[in-house]
Amino acid sequence: AVAWSRPRQMSFSTVTLFYQLIFGTATAVLLFRFSLNSPMEITAVVLLRKILCEVTLAGIAEIVTLLVVRRASGLGLERARMLSLQLSLNAIVSLAVSGAATLFLIGSLTNVRERLTIVEDQIHTVVVDARATAPDRPLPSHIRVAGSAVQLPLIVVPTRDIAAGAKQLGCTRTDRGDQGGPDDRNTFLYWLRVCVIADRFGDKTVLVSPRALVVESFGTIFTGLLPLMAYLVLAELVLFGFRRALGRSMKLWDEAVQGFAARQRFPRGEAPFIESNAVLGMLRQATDDYLDADEERERLARTVDELRTAIDLRLLSGLRIEDAALRFVELTPGAGVCQRVVPFNPADRSALLPLRGTNDIMAELRLAGADSQHWFLLLAHDYDVEAEEWRFGCLVRLRASQAMQTKMLHNARLIELGGMASALSHELRQPLFTISLAAENGATMLQRDPPAVGRAREKFARILEQVARASAIIERTSAYAREERGDREQTDLVQAIHDAARFMRPVLQNRGIELIITGGAGVEPMMLPRIGIEQIIVNALQNAADAIEQARTEQITAGTIGIEITRSAKHVAVAIRDDGSGLVDDLAYSPFDAFSTSKPSGKGTGLGLFICRQIVDEIGGTINLANNSDAVGATLTLTFPLSHPWRLT
After folding, report:
1. Predicted local distance difference test score (pLDDT) of residue 638
2. C-beta separation of 360 from 348 below 8 A
3. CA gap 217, 215 in Å, rounded
4. pTM of the model
5. What is the helix (H) or strand (E) element at residue 14, kind and residue range?
6. 640 CB-side CA count, 13 A
7. Beta strands of 43-151 (E only): which ranges?
8. pLDDT over 70 percentage in the chain
């Protein structure tokens, strides 16, 4: 019962109390009534004694388990750094109530034992006084001792027939020192079954049974214990209700946090506690305000993006008009800020330079180079004299005179954006799958007892890593759409390959494919787009795995992928070799074209190798895919020249 209760955050003492009230009561009734033939009063007191002792020990055990925990690593115990408010309150209240009731019971039972010891002398005194007062009269059949309302049965028997006389009174033993040791006299069963030898005269013996007095004493104890037991049960019920109310509050808090993380409005619900409800109300209002602002930001971003697509709108900040160029920070929704230096046509210099120092400007100009025939409108506001720049502005392409040219450019832009949307959908599928799997595993680990916090933290770190990966993919795709070079960082090429292989290894193992990585010694760090390199390796491994699966359907034994990293004087080469089905004839000369694929419908988009080529072209390398000349399968070869400017020195 205790093992079942702890994962549910239930108190030891609560479970112990109700367990004993149900199963302990049934066991006690069966044992004492049918086996020991004990009166109901004594059965009830013994049962309550057991329940109180169990609940008290459970409370002590719970306090110990709250204060002392097992060390996370190695053997031994250590002090707990945090306590459960609910379990601590349960343990303290239960221990206080059950402890008080137990002390009362112990004192009462001690008084009963002492009183029964004294009653022996009182019985002897009563019998002797009765014989002395009326020696010729027979003794009464019942006598009463001081402080008791019950009458005790009395019988006079020949001394040689003491055992038979005791049996008539329902006794199995007699007491005046001839039977029973001190240990027996401390048990309630002894006093239920004993007959006291009150007096002896001639060959006669007077026997008295104190059973009725024992039953009366235990009945008094039971009556005194009932209010304490009722208070204990009531306290446990109140604590149980408090636990449920606290659980409802924590559920509302969890929904609030999860809703905020998922950027969702959580439903309105009243918490059981005033303080918690007030804080939840503030959090709900803050979440609503945040989501309203976020929705407004998204609407503005979509509007700006549509304007950028339709009229080539560029939002500016920190604009300066220099002698031959415009210097500004371009604000791009979804991509952040970027410093720009845009040369303008020298013929417009005389029109732009006099605008310096003017608070609001509006001017038409042409850019230098290929766009010298296109006119742009420059708007700027709020000139900062100290910084010598305008805080806000925009640059808009004016309509060209030829309507056909405008339409052609617009259609080309739409086609390009459509291609980028498909590429982005393909590339984001893998990191989103990893995020979903890591989130599910992390939530499962937090539900364990005890929660696997360390492993859950690793899963959530993996989620952050994949979010950064997805963001980098989006930024790279946006950079391609703007015909810009992707950001590079100091990258250990060998480590990036191993990281991508580690990501794909579970998929390969599930398919029964062996991955072998060799070489890499002496390869120095380079300035490369790490996410792009990993994406190339992941796509290559995925294609190799698909080729191996295809070969197996054609009854060809396959199941090995090898990655070989070599360094020469001029470049670093990475060869990814498989023993799959190889390239089909239709794709042998165009494997890197967009939407070119040999996979069945719904299994591939034909964009994987296309994107890989774009990444390699951007970093100045080469990529080649060809069938193996000496065996089945194909090999994808990547080369990175060491003489390229992005190599670290």
Report:
1. 92
2. no
3. 5
4. 0.40
5. helix 12-19
6. 26
7. 68-70, 77-79, 142-143
8. 81
Which of 316, 373, 326, 374 shows the shortest CA–CA distance to 351?
A: 326
β-strands 194-201, 173-175: how paired? parallel
Q: How many CA atoms lie within 13 Å of 530's alpha carbon, on the beta-carbon side?
A: 16
Asked whether 581 and 547 are in contact (CB, 8 A), the reply is yes
The number of residues making up the chain comes to 649
For residue 401, name the pLDDT band (cuts at 50, 70, 90): very low
Rounded to the nearest 5 degrees, what angle is found at the Cα of 319, between the Cα atoms of 315 and 324?
115
CB 310 within 8 A of CB 317: no
Taking the CB of residue 103, how many other CB atoms lie within 10 A of it? 12
User: What is the pLDDT at residue 635?
Assistant: 92
Helices 530-553 and 493-510 meet at what angle, rounded to 10?
Answer: 30
Q: Is residue 207 within a helix (H) or strand (E), and if so which, with residue range?
A: strand 204-208
CA separation for the pair 53, 493 (Å, rounded) = 68
Element (H, E) at 238: helix 211-261
Amino acid (one-letter) located at 403: A
Cβ(249)–Cβ(276) below 8 Å = yes
What average pLDDT does the segment 478-494 reach? 61
* pLDDT at site 421: 54
CB-CB neighbours of 76 under 10 Å = 7
Looking at every residue in the chain, the average pLDDT score rounds to 77
Q: Which helix (H) or strand (E) holds 45?
A: helix 40-67
Q: Which residues of 475-496 are buried (b: 16+ CB within 10 A; e: fewer)?
A: bbbbbbbeeeebeeeebbbbeb
